[in-house]
Specification:
With 64 residues, the protein is mainly alpha-helical. The chain has three helices and no strands. The protein has helices at residues 2-18, 27-30, 58-62. It is rod-shaped, with a radius of gyration of 33 Å.
Length: 64
């Protein structure tokens, strides 16, 4: 009987000190998405004059 009273008084003391838990925060409210840089459409555009620069060729590197 005395053990139960101690547990009840301990629970009451915790509730008095800490109260209730805060309400849950949704995952959508914790995340903010924004791009790091402004997208540049010219960066991904196809340029036939410079298309050869993106390939690596050993023969071209050696000057053969």
């Amino acid at each position: 009987m005395e053990l139960q009273d101690t547990a009840d008084s301990g629970a009451a003391a915790r509730r008095a000190r800490f109260g209730t838990l805060p309400e849950r925060i949704r995952q959508e409210d914790m995340i903010e998405e924004k791009s790091a840089t402004v997208p540049d459409p010219a960066r991904y555009a196809y340029d036939p004059e410079r298309s050869w620069t993106s390939f690596s060729c050993l023969a071209a590197d050696l000057g053969l």
